[in-house]
């Protein structure tokens, strides 16, 4: 045993000096000296993990458990690989529980068990195990932030807000807590308190683009679009090429009816990111708004010709290419709609339950006056996604064509109930307003 320990200690030294091959050599020597000595197996696993050789690490933990099935630590470490690397959630949960049964009760195990339960969608179990982790380390900020996140997912915004306030008492400059505190205050409509919180956060984190962007979103929620644009400029001082910031900048210009500026922003994005099909698609939609249908059609076709088949903007462009031709008055638009219907039928073989594809197919039928066929497809799309305001609004347009104003009105009201923003769309759409006359 003394020789085995000596070799094991030499191996540890080489791990500490990042000489992994040498470390493995001495761990092997230790195992050859005493194959029932488990320490070198643990250390050999660490060496393999350092090289991201996860299968070899798993073999080491299996070797330990063959020698001594009561080694809870081996179950715990094996579970970590199965969860974080192999994504085998059920077996990871099984092994975490075995480790606990065998006496491993550290905070990280409980936290990992919580994360695993969350990934499986078991929020109550995730909250319970997170609480167990916090009993051991009640002021560990990562665990507290995770607890707040779980409360948000459970719809317990006030409880989450209390936790973020607790985090900020421990670490006043914690970016995650500062960010989500403002998000929650915005969600519950306390915009003044959200802005006050962000002012303080900005003092603590002056270079945080996330905190500056939170201000953009709060001002946008309040309808103060010019103020939001001022903070977009502040964000750009930190990162002038941030795609999310640039996309929001374009959206805000559209909100103040400055379509020219919005389109310039999309040109800027395309110049920076020539393979970003979202920018081409958004620019095409902007061109539709200003009734430049020919230019819009060219961009939709560019996406269709160059994007991969599974790209969501290509999938959307089958419909919008036809719509732009129809808006242009091009006589070929019916053939393009028929091709869109064919493409969506093919895509349904791969994305059998994607509500967006069903909606786009229904839209295509509606736009070539096949309202009965469209109605059936809209119904299934809504069954798949009952909280999609957009699908209700699209079906309302179809029901207007069917002269069923009562059901169309119900769909519009449902859309607005889900997302009040759609009331703005209603006010700008003469066809939809017909239902309320």
Automatic annotation (TrEMBL):
Domain of life the protein comes from: Bacteria
UniProt repeat feature TPR, residue ranges: 4-37, 38-71, 107-140, 243-276, 355-388
UniProt KW keywords: Repeat, TPR repeat
Pfam family for this entry, one: TPR_16
InterPro entries for this protein: TPR-like_helical_dom_sf, TPR_rpt, Ycf3
UniProt name for this protein: Tetratricopeptide repeat protein
Organism, scientific name: Clostridium intestinale
């Amino acid at each position: 045993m003394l020789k085995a320990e000596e070799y094991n200690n030499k191996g540890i030294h080489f791990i500490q000096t990042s000489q992994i091959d040498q470390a493995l050599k001495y761990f092997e020597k230790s195992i050859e000296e005493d194959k029932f000595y488990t320490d070198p197996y643990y250390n050999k696993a660490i060496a393999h993990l350092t090289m991201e050789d996860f299968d070899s690490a798993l073999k080491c933990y299996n070797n330990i458990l063959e020698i001594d099935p009561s080694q809870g630590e081996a179950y715990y470490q094996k579970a970590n690989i199965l969860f974080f690397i192999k994504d085998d959630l059920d077996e990871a949960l099984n092994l975490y529980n075995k480790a606990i049964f065998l006496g491993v009760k550290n905070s990280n195990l409980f936290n990992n068990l919580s994360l695993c339960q969350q990934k499986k969608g078991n929020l109550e179990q995730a909250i319970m195990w997170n609480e167990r982790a916090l009993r051991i380390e009640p002021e560990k900020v990562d665990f507290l932030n995770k607890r707040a996140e779980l409360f948000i997912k459970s719809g317990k915004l006030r409880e989450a807000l209390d936790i973020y306030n607790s985090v900020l008492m421990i670490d006043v400059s914690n970016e995650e807590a500062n960010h989500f505190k403002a998000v929650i205050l915005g969600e519950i409509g306390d915009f003044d308190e959200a802005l006050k919180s962000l002012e303080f956060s900005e003092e603590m984190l002056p270079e945080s683009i996330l905190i500056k962007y939170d201000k953009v979103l709060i001002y946008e929620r309040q309808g103060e679009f010019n103020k939001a644009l001022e903070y977009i400029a502040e964000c750009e001082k930190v990162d002038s090429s941030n795609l999310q910031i640039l996309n929001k900048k374009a959206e805000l210009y559209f909100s103040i009816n400055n379509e020219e500026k919005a389109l310039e922003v999309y040109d800027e994005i395309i110049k920076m990111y020539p393979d970003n099909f979202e920018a081409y698609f958004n620019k095409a939609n902007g061109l539709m708004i200003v009734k430049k249908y020919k230019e819009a059609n060219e961009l939709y076709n560019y996406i269709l010709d160059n994007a991969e088949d599974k790209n969501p903007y290509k999938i959307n462009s089958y419909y919008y290419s036809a719509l732009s031709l129809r808006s242009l008055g091009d006589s070929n638009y019916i053939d393009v709609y028929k091709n869109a219907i064919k493409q969506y039928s093919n895509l349904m073989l791969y994305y059998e339950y994607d509500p967006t594809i069903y909606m786009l197919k229904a839209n295509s039928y509606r736009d070539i006056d096949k309202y009965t066929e469209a109605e059936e497809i809209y119904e299934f799309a809504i069954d798949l996604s009952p909280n999609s305001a957009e699908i209700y609004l699209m079906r309302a347009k179809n029901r207007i064509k069917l002269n069923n104003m009562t059901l169309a009105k119900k769909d519009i009201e449902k859309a607005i109930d889900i997302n009040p923003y759609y009331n703005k769309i209603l006010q700008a759409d003469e066809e939809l307003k017909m239902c309320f006359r």
